[in-house]
Amino acid sequence: MNRREFLASSTVSALALGSHFASADTSSPSLSSVDMKLGDQTSPTNETHLKYLARYGVRNICAYPEIDGERLYATVDELKRTTDLAAKYGISVDCIAPPFLASSFIDTEKHPAIILAESSERDRDIEQLQKYIRNCALAGIPSIKYNMSILGVLRSGRIPGRGDSLDHYWDLAKTPPREPLTKAGAVNADQFWERITYFLNHVIPVANEYKIRMACHPQDPGVPPEGYMGVDRVLGTVDGLKKFITIQESPYHGLNFCQGTVSEMLHDPKTEIFDMIRYFGTRKKIFNVHFRNIRGQRDNFVEVYPDEGDIDFVKAIKVYREIGYPYMLMPDHVPVAADNADPHSLQSFAFCYGYIRALIHFVSSTA
Question: Which end of the chain has fewer CB within 10 Å, C or N?
Fold first, then answer.
């Protein structure tokens, strides 16, 4: 399952936060007192969708430039067309996602060479990403987000949520592998680390040269040490993420910190997640945040709206302020509408935009 396809939907605004913040200053405080921004990564980056984002106060996005032909990178002109179109609606392109290195299932991935360690093809694809880094610098786009994925996003299915919504869930004990192995075969920890290290050794020096932040998403969700479908998901544990950020030490090498995915790694996320934010945040390794909530814990959880999960989002945003986090907070993996009336889950995203924007207003007013 591809993460962009996985994104999901409810109505607008932060009214649900009203009683929680009744004692806060209600004089529409400026957001300038904190640097973090309401962000978004939904697609496509076209005029219709940009109007939708502007309607709900989204001013910073991860974009998906249109790329002509079979290239895996956008030209400077293609990137500038994207930034100019977004600017028309007062929106800044703070990040892009390349058309490969997504959170996709390897058997359906069109460009798997980097993850499969296919020698000549791997170097060819890395070279394309190096060109993308250079072009982003020339176009004024400061960050690229990517994944190192073989299994994609693993979920058991959907269960009823509030109202008529459906929530995705994962229950490892009740979800046997759909097949023994992927076309990657068995990939143990040493093999996966070799592939990750090879990639970083060739990409991060270029990111350093052009000052482009490379933000890697954790593997979602973590699996037992013995692996799942033959794969040891080394970026599906906190220790794995800690090791990852030490390879190629650089201010331009860090994480697309999915708070939901990191919560899924923990045995008691409602208490442990805040120290995870501090650990990676104080080291300046958080380049983007997927600000989403879960109920449950490692190996057994449900993805829910931000106001109904186990993680205290008011406390969480205070921790992001505490560490001086300056980039985007964006919704991710929202509940979906049961009747498919909103196939892209835009209502659910709109609710999350309002909720996150209200949190940023709140934390600004108390800064």
Answer: C
Alpha carbon distances (Å) from 159 to 178, 198, 308, 335: 19, 40, 15, 10
Find out whether 364 and 31 touch, Cβ atoms under 8 Å.
yes
CA distances from 186 to 76, 177, 232, 299 (A): 39, 13, 8, 21
What are the structure tokens assigned to 322, written together? 């505490």
Q: Which two tokens stand for residue 125?
A: 């694809």
Which one, of 106, 131, 105, lies nearest residue 202 by Cα? 131
Is 38 in contact with 58 (CB distance < 8 Å)? yes
Burial letters 136-175, b for 16+ CB under 10 A, else e = bbebebbbbbbbbbbbbbbbeebeebeeebbbbbbebeee
- pTM score > 0.85 for this model? yes
Tokens of 37: 């921004």
3-state secondary structure 89-145: CCCEEEEECCCCCCCCEHHHCCCCHHHHCCHHHHHHHHHHHHHHHHHHHHHCCCEEE
Query: E strand or H helix at 297, and its extent?
Result: strand 293-297
229-251 pLDDT, tens per residue? 999 999 999 999 999 999 999 99
C-alpha to C-alpha distance for 356 and 41, rounded to whole angstroms: 14
Please give the order of strands across the beta sheet that includes 92-96.
37-38, 328-330, 286-290, 253-258, 213-217, 143-147, 92-96, 60-63
Q: What is the pLDDT of residues 162-188, one digit of tens each?
A: 999 999 999 999 999 988 999 999 999
Residues 6+ apart with CB under 8 A from 27: none
